[in-house]
Amino acid sequence: MAVTGIKENMEVIGADGVHVGTVDHVDGARIKLTKKDSGEGSHRGHHHYISTSLVAEVEGNKVRLSANSDVAVMFEEEKSEK
């Protein structure tokens, strides 16, 4: 799936149509999500990333993933501190 159509502020949704996050930008082979979608607790206030390999299609202003939202969030990564 070509990710060239993915733009800032697009909604990322799971295959089940449930909101996963909002695109901050594409960072290599990952979609960086905005901090406002960073979750709760220790995850709050951190950018999270979804692999572009999970993208099924880009339609309108939505990025639809090939996995349901509850599975997709399990694949979220935080920025590595290297």
UniProtKB/TrEMBL annotation:
A Pfam family this chain is assigned to: DUF2171
Domain of life: Bacteria
Name the record gives this protein: DUF2171 domain-containing protein
